[in-house]
Automatic annotation (TrEMBL):
The lineage of its organism: Eukaryota, Metazoa, Chordata, Craniata, Vertebrata. The keyword Magnesium does not apply. It is found in: Membrane. Residues 21-315 form the Sugar phosphate transporter domain. The chain crosses the membrane at residues 21-40, 46-65, 109-134, 141-159, 165-185, 205-222, 242-261, 273-294, 300-323. Residues 346-365 have a biased composition (Acidic residues). It comes from the Eukaryota. This is Sugar phosphate transporter domain-containing protein. GO terms for cellular component: membrane.
Length: 365
């Protein structure tokens, strides 16, 4: 019996490791896949805002179907917010999110994947800034070092870059700024127990309509007239190009939903720390693939800047882990746990969602 128990423990541990690796790989497939797919699609389909609107519509439909499936499985009704909470609590998060995604997709018309990936990494700075503003983060001296490392790394990466485009760079930088607002507001939104949006599927369901409405005026101003005269969609002479465009846009929508759902699975079955660390290695994989598949040119200084930026992000993740552990050790009495991504009614099977590393924080890499 004594030899059997360690054997069973090893098997359980091995299953957990294999499950984590599988979830990380699934996250990589959707995250890296949608980046390269959107860049590839933008070569022939120059309507990134319309593409984003299609993705939002698909995400809303799929999240509604998922909510219905969860409700049928658990037998418990899903949360539906009142109009007052919907307009005053959800709307700011929705508008920041849709502008972040819209500008990110728009930038693919101008910049390479490597420059996009590197610039998007600066979102950590803005998330950190707004976390301090909303008092979700406690200031400490090491945060200055994090800011310096990421900022200097970004400067080194863009310095004398042969494939640098100012317009696209500003778009991604603005998207990163909005991303800081987006993820901070999302954290606040999901932490409000009275709203009941702890499950990201419910959050996605409530966000998509307002995101669609927020981006639609910008789409009309920039792409409406041009798209209405495009032979790819509204002035088609043959049915096959129209169906081909819809099919390509639908694939992007499925990838976008798969990305959100894979993040949900990864965090709920492991921890938010796992998602953060996975995001660091994902960026390395993205740059290597961009250099190999897309021919992105990067100098030694660019790679060095990327390494410095990754050091800053890694330091931030390490500090978050250290301070979250310290807080939990110093707490006394019963603690109200509100896992970020726990399904309503799932208290037994999803016990992994209560990992120590999983405080109500959203990481976006």
């Amino acid at each position: 019996i004594g030899s059997w128990q360690p054997s069973m423990a090893c098997r359980v541990q091995l299953c957990r490791v294999l499950r984590t690796v599988g979830l990380v790989l699934l996250y990589y497939v959707f995250s890296i896949g949608i980046t390269f797919y959107n860049k590839w699609l933008m070569k022939d389909f120059h309507y990134p805002l319309f593409m984003t609107l299609v993705h939002l519509a698909i995400n809303f439909c799929l999240s509604a179907l998922t909510r219905r499936a969860i409700q049928s499985w658990t037998g418990k009704p899903r949360i539906i917010l009142s109009w007052r909470h919907y307009l005053f609590k959800v709307a700011p998060t929705a508008f920041a999110t849709t502008l972040d995604i819209g500008l990110s997709n728009w930038s693919f018309l101008f910049i390479t994947i490597s420059l996009y990936t590197m610039t998007k990494s600066s979102a950590v700075l803005f998330i950190l800034f707004f976390s301090l503003v909303f008092k979700l983060e406690e200031p400490n001296p090491f945060l200055i070092l994090v800011v310096l490392l990421i900022s200097s790394g970004l400067f080194m990466f863009t310095f004398e870059s042969t494939q640098f485009n100012l317009e696209g760079f500003i778009m991604v930088l603005l998207a990163s700024f909005l991303g800081g607002i987006r993820w901070t507001l999302t954290q606040v939104l999901m932490q409000k127990a009275e709203l009941g949006l702890q499950n990201p599927i419910d959050t996605m369901y409530h966000l998509q309509p307002l995101m669609f409405l927020g981006l639609f005026p910008l789409f009309l101003y920039n792409e409406g007239l041009s798209l209405s005269m495009s032979e790819k969609l509204f002035r088609v002479t043959e049915l096959s190009p129209f169906l081909s465009s819809l099919f390509k846009l639908s694939i992007g929508g499925l990838l976008a939903f798969g990305l959100g759902f894979s993040e949900f699975l990864l965090v709920s079955r492991t921890s938010s720390l796992t998602l953060s660390i996975s995001g660091i290695f994902k960026e390395i994989c993205t740059l290597l693939l961009a250099a190999y598949l897309m021919g992105d040119k990067m100098s030694v200084l660019n790679w060095l800047g990327f390494a410095v930026c990754l050091c800053g992000i890694s330091l931030h993740v390490g500090l978050k882990t250290y301070y979250s552990k310290s807080k939990q050790l110093s707490r006394k009495g019963p603690e109200l746990k509100m896992p970020l991504l726990r399904l309503n009614g799932d208290e037994g099977e999803n016990s992994a969602a209560d990992d120590d590393d999983e405080e109500q924080e959203v990481f976006m890499h």
